[in-house]
Design a protein that fits this description.
Length: 193
């Protein structure tokens, strides 16, 4: 009997990840993130709101999407006219011109083309992580990676390609309805009785 329970527990733990509650994630972020900004409580609510809408608090969430276009800035001038020239003789252009997919990993839906390293992407690997680490039950490296991103955004990013990728990823997971979120209302259910 006990053995069955243990086996079931392991099976669940390994395959399906964990669905956190809003308040659990709030607590984990309070412990793991340093937000040196005045309205950090509301920013925390906004981050958790993004998680709710993008991954549904599922620590194992994975999504694959076509590489996002440049965040709209003026008329769309095809960054890669050569990319449309499919079936041309030598398709040995730089990777920049290929149709790529991005895989988004975990609670925060972070991209393998930006933060972590997977078989599919020759990535920036900003967080120096294997992408698998972002879909296990242990959220400490996920949160550390969010901290790395926040730190990176705090200062002008020297390398333009890095900046471009980070901004692409953020425009992708950006949820407009979260931007006005206030901690007092969003976390109201988390108040201790
Ligand atoms: C969490 O996401 C994984 C991967 O997409 C999926 O297999 C699993 O069923 C999800 N868990 C729940 C409870 O929705
Ligand atoms: C494409 O480039 C790779 C190295 O980047 C080279 O090994 C390969 O031979 C090239 N192929 C063609 C068709 O030029
Ligand atoms: C989570 O992973 C970190 C290292 O990434 C480790 O130090 C920590 O003990 C792990 N926590 C749990 C609950 O396994």
């Amino acid at each position: 009997m006990l053995a069955v329970v243990v086996v079931l527990f392991l099976a669940v733990g390994v395959s399906d990840g964990v669905i956190l509650s809003k308040c659990e994630l709030k607590q984990q972020l309070e412990e793991g993130l340093t937000l040196q900004i005045p309205n950090s409580a509301d920013v925390l609510a906004q981050i958790v709101c993004h998680v709710q809408l993008t991954s549904g608090f599922n620590t194992s969430a994975i999504k694959t999407i076509p590489e996002p276009q440049e965040p709209r800035s003026g008329p769309r001038r095809g960054r890669s006219p050569r990319g449309n020239n499919k079936g041309g003789s030598s398709s040995n252009e730089s990777d920049e011109d290929k149709d790529e997919v991005w895989t988004l990993y975990g609670l925060f839906q972070l991209s393998d083309h930006v933060v972590c390293n997977s078989a599919q992407s020759r990535a920036l690997n900003l967080c120096r992580l294997s992408c698998d680490k972002l879909i296990d039950d242990n959220t400490s490296d996920d949160i550390a990676c969010v901290q790395t991103l926040i730190n990176a955004l705090t200062y002008p990013i020297p390398d333009p390609e890095t900046a471009r990728h980070i901004h692409k990823m953020i425009s992708l997971i950006h949820q407009p309805e979260c931007m006005t979120m206030k901690a007092t209302s969003y976390f109201a259910i988390c108040q201790t009785p």
